[in-house]
Amino acid sequence: MPSLGRLHLITDTRPGRDPLAVLAAVLPVARAELVVQVRVAETATDREAYDLTQRVVRLTAPYGVTCLVNDRLHVALAARAAGGHVGADDLPVTAARQVLGPTAVLGATARYPGTAVEAVSAGATYLGVGPCYATTTKSGLPPEIGAAGVQAVAEAVDVPVIAIGGVTAAAVPELRAAGAYGVAVVGALSAAADPARAAVELLRGLSC
Ligand SMILES: Cc1ncc(COP(=O)(O)OP(=O)(O)O)c(N)n1
Ligand SMILES: Cc1ncsc1CCOP(=O)(O)O
Ligand SMILES: [Mg+2]
Predict the structure, then answer these.
(1) Rounded to the nearest whole angstrom, what is the distance from the C-alpha of residue 165 to the centroid of ligand 2?
(2) How remote is the CA of residue 207 from the centroid of ligand 1, in Å?
(3) Which class in CATH covers the domain with range 7-206?
(4) 61, 82 in Cβ contact below 8 A?
(5) In terms of C-beta density within 10 A (0-12 exposed, 13-18 middle, 19 or more buried), how is residue 128 classed?
(6) Cα dihedral value 12, 201, 146, 66, nearest 10
(7) For Mg(2+), which residues are the binding ones (predicted)?
(8) Whose CA is nearest to atom 7 of ligand 1?
(9) Is 72 in the pocket of ligand 1 (CB under 6 A)?
(10) How does pLDDT run along the chain (208 residues), one tens digit per residue?
(11) C-alpha distance from residue 183 to each of 46, 72, 90, 115, 163 (Å)
């Protein structure tokens, strides 16, 4: 399996956002350091998720970028994405691994060392760990775990830990120092006035 990119761009499909325009801006600067996770609203249809995934797969293929699908693993398979990401309300990691097959990239959400170790035993190849900081992108989240929470998970597992939730370029150094391999962001790229520049700033911290 090729090494995982350190900057995970999660698509922002909220009204007024343009995930493909953001991706087109970020791709040339981030290249293979980028992972794109297609995440659509729960109210989106499978067809909408599939169409967006196909477009992302086509856009990213020339750059060797890994494309993943959040939650909807059948969409990942149908669109020939590299894998998917599951959390507590999705298929269990063992079932997700069965669906995707042995070589797919499979991310799982974890907040604590115990659940992190279980997810890795069940077949997760990386962990999404958070929320690290306050965020308005997703509601109903549990309390933030901060860099200390990331460190606790990173010390417990030997797969890449991807910090998520309110992550900005300013926070990347402390997350890296805590053992995060990379970061996953929605707003830091989607809401940026200049997404390419925002990606460069995130990548600067990730390369240290
Ligand atoms: C990299 C990464 N980490 C965590 C999540 C959150 O997944 P989940 O807990 O299933 O929540 P939803 O994204 O499905 O709302 C993620 N998507 N990516
Ligand atoms: C999907 C998800 N899961 C935990 S935080 C989050 C949203 C992250 O978005 P942002 O990077 O804008 O805080
Ligand atoms: Mg989910």
Answers:
(1) 4
(2) 24
(3) alpha beta
(4) no
(5) buried
(6) 50
(7) 71, 90
(8) 87
(9) no
(10) 558 999 999 999 999 999 999 999 999 999 999 999 999 999 999 999 999 999 999 999 999 999 999 999 999 999 999 999 999 999 999 999 999 999 999 999 999 999 999 999 999 999 999 999 999 999 999 999 999 999 999 999 999 999 999 999 999 999 999 999 999 999 999 999 999 999 999 999 999 8
(11) 27, 21, 21, 19, 5
CA distance 123 to 175: 24
Beta pairing class for 161-164 and 66-70: unpaired
Q: What residues does each domain of the chain span?
A: 7-206
171 CB under 6 A from ligand 2? no
Q: Which ligand lies nearest to the CA atom of residue 39 in the structure? A: 1
